[in-house]
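User:
Care to share a sequence and structure tokens?

Assistant:
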Amino acid sequence: MLRIGPIELDVPVVQAALSGYSDLPMRRIARRCGALFALNEVVLDRIVLARGRHRRRILDVTPDDHPVGGQLMGARPDEFAEAADAMVAAGYDAIDLNFGCPVRKVLGRCRGGFLLSQPKTALEIVRCVYDAVTQRRPVMVKMRRGMDDSAESERHFFEILDGALALGVAAVTVHGRTVKQRYVGPSDWTFLRRVKAHVGDAVILGSGDLFSAEAVQRMLAETGVDGVTIARGCIGNPWIFRDCRAVLAGEPLPLPPSVAEQRAVLAEHYQHAMEVYGERRGSRIMRKVGIKYSVHHPCAGEVRTAFVAVRRAADWQAALDRWYDPAAAWPPCMRHEGPGDLIAAGAE
């Protein structure tokens, strides 16, 4: 059991906020496959506060999308707080503050991971947001283990961590890479173990290098964190949530999804995208989604090429019919164990 404020999860696994991916269609599919708590893709506080279609879509929380967390990114405490209040009013079940994004453009605008170098500003943001939504929704914080590997960076990390918990945040997600690392090199799970030992009973979620249910199980066992957030490991792989449920319950790891199962999920994901975005934009979005899903197909390279060529709805349907014919005699499907690492079903 994982508890984040009033949110109770029977499996300690959360779908992370994923820029450009964890929209409503993806969250619906993640829930279909076993994820109870999912985070919306990170949004700028200023977009939440501005008028227009982007704000309307962000604040349109549907009845079937709960519990859902809204992740915010920005630079000014007052704008963070105002945007958090708007998201709570719209129906989000938790507010997550992004202090970890390593993208250079974000850092250059004093947002995301940059705030790990500014403990006073970071904690003022936490205080303002907590005051704005207090007693209504839990506040969470997403951090990396520092800007870099320097002693000063580590001191800043723990100053922000301790201060955020003292202010009342319900959970802190810690990614085991530094901002400087971005996505290069291994996530430092020993640091996660140190963090959990340091905070005691406070809720810590671990993140980094979680591309399989076995990796999730190892992180929980090796670090003692209370739960995990799965990020890149669930893009195009919603079945990882089903696998986590099985493995953490002591059951055998399920077989990789058959081509027929993949087709059913892809078709459902596509339908949700059409409902949310319309045919023209939805087809463009599903092009990149299909590319991510293709890694599980026994003919992954050819399927990826087919999705790369998608330009309109007819192209999408043609790729689905050609490569996901459930009546075809496909070879065994592949299991996605990590970036670029595919293992044939039964081969491990």
Observations:
- The longest helix spans residues 259-277.
- Residues 342-348 have pLDDT under 50 and may be disordered.
